[in-house]
Amino acid sequence: MGWFSDIFTWWNGATLSTKLYTNARGIFVGEDEEGNRYYQDASGTGTAGKPRRWVIYKGYAEPSKVPPDWFGWLHYIVDTPPTEETYHARPWQKPHQPNLTGTPAAYRPQGSLVGEMRRPKGDGDYQPWNAE
What we know:
The chain is α+β, with helices and mostly antiparallel strands. It has helices spanning 2-8, 16-25, 68-74, and strands spanning 26-31, 37-41, 53-56.
């Protein structure tokens, strides 16, 4: 089912046209710790005067899986990719964590409809409003 999913799915890795474009015009720049692969257009400058850059995600296409160092390169904030320059996180920065919304590991507060469906017990300080 590999070629079938390549043609008809866009959320699971790269589409067939993206793979063809990458093989024809892409230069491999590097890979992050998640397994995402980063490319740059071999023809040089694109329509905006800058080389086109893209990522092929490992697994499902989830943009929040791009770490901060690669995000800066993808969005032209820095010119050198993290493979050529060592990225040092600041002491206050937390380790990268992808967006977990829609997954079993997503945050569900107490009383959430998706959670246990139990409302927390009141502590007796609630007084309902009565129209008099």
